[in-house]
Inverse folding.
């Protein structure tokens, strides 16, 4: 009886979750099977417009997956997938390394005012992402007065047009993404470092272990799981990154640096191919889900969780 009552209490929340999560996914899946465009998707009454299913033959069967076949055969899609995975791997590596390094500084006994420094460190997390990204776009401005170019001139180098070179633009994405996410990594890592037993560190010191040896043998294993968990979460966020390439140079130069979400957005809203855009977005969701499942499984992050 008590379980039935608990189920009834949870039911409204599940209903709202379904409305705001499963219904958009289901509608997006439906659009991905059609020739949806602005000229037909808004032509009918209610949710159903004048869009039609688009079929392709597979093993002698006519299936409404023409958009998926077209997307998967598009070189721009695979370029977007490759750039997105490279962005995820590189950005997560930078965020983890920078977050651990900064957390080690903020937990060091040699640093005074650590409480205030921790407050300062998380300020970027409190700012709206669009504000931060716009500021960074000014930092990497191709004009000579851009902060990055001023720094290069001070070092004796030639100013760069950051957003017109593919890999320079990609590097600006990584730096900005690291800035957006490092406060989260620092918070998780600081909490993990504070939980490392002092006895183990003292024992390592007695055995003559140096700073890096203590970090490798004692600290790193102790903070491995929290840092891995934070890395997986930020990796999922990096996979969905849209604002940075869109604000900086629309994924340019050309379409070389289009991350997968921006690629789907442009197909849907710039080229008015809602069906193809929906197929791209659902493919991205599938990749994210597979990544999360494999990462949690290989990282054994669910170990010890009750079924």
């Amino acid at each position: 009886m008590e379980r039935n009552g608990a189920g009834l209490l949870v039911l409204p929340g599940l209903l709202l979750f379904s409305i705001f999560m499963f219904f958009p996914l289901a509608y997006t899946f439906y659009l991905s099977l059609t020739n949806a465009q602005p000229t037909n998707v808004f032509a009918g009454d209610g949710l159903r417009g004048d869009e039609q299913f688009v079929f392709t033959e597979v093993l002698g069967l006519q299936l409404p997956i023409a958009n998926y076949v077209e997307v998967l055969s598009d070189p721009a899609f695979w370029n977007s997938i490759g750039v997105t995975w490279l962005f995820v791997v590189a950005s997560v590596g930078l965020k983890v390394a920078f977050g651990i390094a900064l957390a080690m500084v903020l937990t060091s006994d040699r640093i005074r005012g650590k409480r205030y420094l921790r407050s300062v460190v998380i300020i970027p997390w409190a700012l709206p992402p669009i504000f931060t990204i716009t500021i960074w776009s000014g930092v990497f401005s191709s004009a000579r007065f851009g902060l990055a170019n001023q720094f290069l001139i001070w070092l004796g180098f030639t100013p760069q047009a950051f957003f017109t070179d593919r890999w320079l633009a990609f590097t600006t994405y990584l730096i900005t993404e690291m800035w957006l996410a490092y406060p989260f990594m620092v918070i998780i890592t600081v909490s993990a470092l504070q939980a490392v037993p002092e006895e183990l560190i003292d024992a390592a010191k007695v055995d003559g272990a140096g700073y890096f040896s203590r970090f490798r043998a004692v600290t790193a294993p102790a903070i491995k799981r929290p840092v891995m968990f934070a890395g997986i979460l930020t990796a999922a966020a990096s996979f969905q990154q849209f604002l940075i390439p869109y604000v900086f140079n629309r994924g340019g130069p050309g379409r070389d640096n289009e991350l997968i979400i921006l690629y789907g957005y442009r197909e849907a809203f710039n080229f008015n191919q809602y069906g193809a855009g929906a197929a791209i977005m659902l493919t991205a969701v599938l990749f994210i889900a597979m990544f999360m499942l494999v990462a949690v499984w290989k990282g054994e992050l669910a170990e010890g969780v009750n079924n």
